[in-house]
Amino acid sequence: MANHRDGDPDNTHLSSARLPGRGYHDIGGLPAGPIEHEMVETRPWEKLSIVIGNTLGAKGAKVIRTDEVRRTREEIGVEIYNELGYFERGMESLSTLLIEKGVVTADELQARMKVIAARIAEEGR
Question: On the chain, which terminus has fewer CB atoms closer than 10 Å, C or N?
Fold first, then answer.
């Protein structure tokens, strides 16, 4: 594993990079079936997920770093990784990082999600 920069936390216990070979997320060069060429409209929440990531990242508050996002995406587990779509994996990664860094607790995040789910059920959006 690469050396840490001064001030970086020791996250080696969290990293799949300690293991040799490919991770479940690394499919580069492997047969993966046909490529879907149809254009799909990006949903509003997907666009918002990019805005949130940029706001928290290097061009914003600098709360998260690219390598941290990659680590948490790669460590969500094969079942969840394969079940979620691209933007969903991104939000799962951001949630994990914000909890790890103490920006928000898992309970606070769940409570907020319940409020949002209730609003969507009530208002239809």
Answer: C
